[in-house]
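Example 3.2
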Amino acid sequence: MYVIIVGCGRVGSQLAKILSNEGHDVIVIDKSQQSFERLGKTFNGITLIGNGFDPELLKTADIAKAYAFCALTNGDNTNLVAAQVAKKIFKVPKVIVRVYDPSRAEIYKALGLDVISGTVLFAAMIRDKIVETRFSSYLIESGELGVLEIEVNKTLKDSSISQINIPGELVVATIRRPHGVVIPELSTKVKEGDVLLAVMKTVSLDKIRRKFGLLSDF
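Structure, written as tokens:
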């Protein structure tokens, strides 16, 4: 996969290293040569100095080949302009924008951009640690859904997934076992010690907590 990352800060550099280590072709653009030091000596992608919204520089980066374009600088306006250039001018299939100001997120989404708000995600993560450590609402950006971990006890063991699911409120997506992860069928029976990862409605958290005997953290 060919990916262009604009902004070699903490997030951009970490993403670049992860993608590069996985064997993807990565181009990193930043205005500062010094920023590329975050990539380390093992990074085998390409670095370019300049503005990530400069069409000529993006042509140099061979943006026509890019499947994904990530605008991850520390400036919302820069990210928006760069993302718009990538999406509207160069028709990059996947354009992702980092937004610091949560109030701008909906505006960016209306422009057809994939938006990640670090402020919202971090706040949601802290909320989850306070309210229920087994529950992760930040994984679903809308906040209406979350992922809940349920450890199978003696009461639940030998139940089928169809018996555990709650229509419209909770669906077991995977079973984590000591020797790997299972994507279950409705007929799959769970074992004591299994950890179920279930997608659920946030508003149903208290009801589901009671049903499965999950003690509140407060």
